[in-house]
Specification:
CATH class of the largest domain in chain A: Alpha Beta
Order of helices and strands of chain A: EHHHHHEHEHEHEE
Number of strands of chain A: 6
Number of helices of chain A: 8
Strand order of the largest sheet of chain A: 3-2-1-4-5-6
Helix content of chain A: 40-55%
Distance between the termini of chain A: 18 Å
Number of domains of chain A: 2
CATH topology of the largest domain in chain A: Rossmann fold
CATH architecture of the largest domain in chain A: 3-Layer(aba) Sandwich
Strand content of chain A: 5-15%
Oligomer: homodimer
Structural class of chain A: alpha/beta
CATH superfamily of the largest domain in chain A: HAD superfamily/HAD-like
Shape of chain A: globular
Radius of gyration of chain A: 17 Å
Chain lengths: 218, 218
Amino acid sequence: MKSIKALVFDAYGTLFDVGSLSDGAERVFPGKGLGVSNGWRAKQLEYTWLRSLMHRYEDFWKITGDALIATCAAMKLTLDAKRQRNLMEMYLKLPLFGEAKRALEKLSSVPLAILSNGSPMMLEEMVRNAGVERMFRHVISVDEVKTYKPSAAAYELAVTKIGVEKEEIGFVSSNFFDVAGAKAFGFRTYWVNRSGRTADELGVSPDRIFRLLSDLLE
Amino acid sequence: MKSIKALVFDAYGTLFDVGSLSDGAERVFPGKGLGVSNGWRAKQLEYTWLRSLMHRYEDFWKITGDALIATCAAMKLTLDAKRQRNLMEMYLKLPLFGEAKRALEKLSSVPLAILSNGSPMMLEEMVRNAGVERMFRHVISVDEVKTYKPSAAAYELAVTKIGVEKEEIGFVSSNFFDVAGAKAFGFRTYWVNRSGRTADELGVSPDRIFRLLSDLLE
């Protein structure tokens, strides 16, 4: 088996705590924070898949905004311009998981990269706001190939940018569908399953499963 | 504008009442019927999208079974072989919406067809069990193109089979994503929104929205 020459991380849910949006959403919509944040995230992913299949790409900022509008409409919540701006800005300031930051600081033996659905603007702001821009040799957005994970073209982009073979890339995600797509593409895959979720039945299994990102250090 | 020369219907949720599964699921998992049936349906669709994007097609019978397994696992419900068979067989005996049957009987001015994600076996059994096999000139499964809606290839199959231009096909679905895909492809689209759902934000709008299938008769 080839040795790992680069580690590539998913951003949303893996390095950055998307779940933290429920607190912010709770401030905007008291009593509905968890429902809004869960619905928003589910719609956001659904739209990436549907638009990829329909070949009607829009960038992740647009999709994230559309998903918020649809979620609030379905929940009969009034999303005025101020609330919308407030919630969208939270997406640019998502916190790193504390344990992720500690793990990243120690994972210096191979180059690190991010491969994310996020638009270049979103990733740049989020990485800078978290103060980790110097930790990653590459911050790669699927925007360049105008399709979303788990399309092979999204993973192929990381191979092109990093310049090592796909079998030499270790891919880390907390999103099972993302691990499945990366595995189907040919990466070595590590599923970080912080919340004890059950695996999806997609005909592929991660190479390794960890509870925390810091377990990668072993 | 060209006149409509064929009407093509989605099956699950449009002609056949997928929501009826909650009663059957309630008998198998008392107190959890609605949760199981909603989760099952959501996972089933999610898997069609993910597998289409990953180019790892499996037919809808396999995907429906996988979605049931994953849903029960996530809900920590024990799915033994008997329960699994029991629930899967419900998918072959879904009832037609009563108003759908009455509407179909009157829509005889143009040829009618079904275009569905369902596998050929599933569609054949379900249509025969409902006693409507003679109403449809074509019962078309996406299985032939090994991808799912809303891929353009799925809708293109209906054009090929029916032999009229896509602008001459009226496409009817209760699933918004399906209407969006059909509209993006080039069909005339009718969204049957029985349960008063809000539209998704996918950059396309149905040509017409009806509350009931029988409203098509107007």
